[in-house]
Design brief:
Helices cover 76% and strands 1% of the residues. A hairpin with a 2-residue loop joins strand 1 and strand 2. Bound molecules: protoporphyrin IX containing FE.
Length: 415
């Protein structure tokens, strides 16, 4: 591409930008986008890995694997919900600062964007179909029914992930948007094609399900071992499978990361050998070394660190991934999200962070405390007065928040 062609692409991107501007500093949107993407992909990986264990255990005629499969199905069900809910957050942030890119990519593949939701619903239904077919069975070592549904669920989840991957890849090629829209001189309004992908990049993000789920298995043992009815032999076995998954999985993922870096678009220049290009892969490999050194023997304390470690590593990878996007769009095409027009709105910015910290914090603290205690209690769990008070506080905070929402809304409306 010559300089005038690049300039045309740059102008096109700026022309597509929302003239209304953004309500706070663009860097805040990017920061939150990176953070919430790291959380999204962590739960996606947990969901994929625990689904894979569910399937493996269902097909393997082995009591321990069958038990583990049943336990991991519970985690997979929750992880899908969390992955979907947390997936909305990076979507909101990316569409604010990269609106020309996100919407163009979505319109170019509109059928797939709508199909995404339908496929996801079927994937979720298939998982629940499998769950309901087997939830009444007390003996978890028996061969489960309807294994095909779990296979269907995992396959559809992967299709959903591939659609997301493709939309993200299309963002990185603004120079090709017009070509995709105008195929052989004919405008293509259909939105029926996914135009770009990088299978190494996709494989990398999916493969991280192996070490992340390994971290889950190690944590699972640590969490369950304090129960009076704990079966230590089974739990130790589960943790040893987990450690192996962290070590082997991280090496596989690091290799796929290198393959991704070797195949990034030419417009990324020398990103692969830059600090952010290298650190992502190094951190993934570091997980294997950490597991080898810190998860030795009983490693009671570090067991709980296995998942936060995975999140920190995921966060570094998420920053690298964002730097790659910035490197291409700003570095090559001269489109800088940082120069977005700012129409400062302190109330909504403050409100966002307060909601996040206080409303989200108190409600989550209550739910997580309950979930934690229930998981470690044999029989029926009765909350302590402190936990009950936590619940009451959470309800009050929610009520006050809802009230202020309407009061401010009506006040603004009446102006
Ligand atoms: C449940 C199945 C899902 C899977 C397997 C999945 C997988 C993925 C993967 C692999 C990526 C990384 C793509 C890349 O950078 O190459 C990604 C990114 C993303 N996903 Fe998901 N995802 C799922 C569901 C969702 C849902 C339901 C939402 C939103 C409602 C969502 C929102 C996002 C967003 C916003 C990104 C980042 C886009 C960007 O930065 O350009 N995902 N997802």
């Amino acid at each position: 591409m010559d300089a005038s062609q690049v300039a045309q692409v740059t102008d096109m991107m700026y022309a597509l930008r929302n003239p209304a501007g953004v309500p706070t500093y663009p860097i805040i949107f990017i920061g939150l986008g990176v953070l919430t993407f790291a959380l999204h992909i962590l739960f996606v990986q947990l969901m994929l890995g625990t689904s894979a264990i569910t399937i493996f255990g269902a097909f393997k005629d082995d009591a321990k694997w069958r038990r583990l499969a049943a336990a991991m199905l519970e985690i997979s069900k929750v992880s899908v919900s969390v992955a979907i809910v947390i997936g909305v957050a990076p979507l909101l942030f990316v569409q604010v600062v990269y609106d020309p890119h996100w919407y163009t990519s979505n319109v170019l593949s509109a059928n797939w964007v709508i199909g995404f939701i339908i496929i996801l619903i079927f994937a979720y239904w298939a998982m629940y179909a499998y769950y309901f077919m087997n939830s009444k069975e007390k003996d978890k070592t028996k061969e489960p029914k309807g294994k095909i549904w779990m296979l269907v669920s995992l396959a559809l989840m992967l299709v959903v992930g591939f659609i997301m991957h493709s939309l993200t890849s299309q963002i990185l090629h603004p120079e090709l948007w017009k070509e995709w829209y105008l195929q052989n001189g004919v405008l293509d309004y259909s939105g029926s094609k996914l135009h770009a992908n990088n299978l190494w990049r996709f494989a990398f993000f999916i493969s991280m399900a192996i070490p992340v789920t390994g971290g889950m298995l190690v944590t699972y043992r640590r969490f369950k071992m304090v129960r009076e009815d704990a079966d230590h032999e089974y739990l130790n076995w589960a943790a040893s499978v987990g450690k192996k998954w962290i070590k082997v999985g991280s090496v596989i993922s690091a290799a796929l990361y290198v393959a991704w870096m070797l195949t990034i678009p030419e417009t990324a220049g020398d990103f692969a050998t830059s600090f952010w290009g290298i650190i992502g892969g190094v951190m993934v490999l570091f997980y294997a070394i950490w597991a080898q050194v810190r998860l030795n023997g009983e490693a009671m304390f570090c067991s709980y660190m296995a998942l936060p470690m995975a999140l920190v590593i995921g966060l570094v990878v998420a920053i690298s991934r964002e730097m790659l996007r910035y490197g291409i769009l700003d570095g090559f095409f001269g489109y800088d999200f940082m120069d977005y027009k700012i129409v400062m709105d302190w109330y909504s910015t403050g409100m966002f962070f307060l909601t996040f910290a206080i409303v989200g914090g108190s409600v989550l603290a209550y739910y997580l405390t309950i979930a934690w205690k229930v998981g470690q209690t044999v029989g029926v769990y009765t909350p302590s007065p402190f936990v009950n008070r936590l619940g009451t506080i959470a309800l009050w905070i929610l009520a006050i928040w809802t009230l202020q929402f309407f009061v401010v809304g009506f006040y603004v409306w009446a102006q």
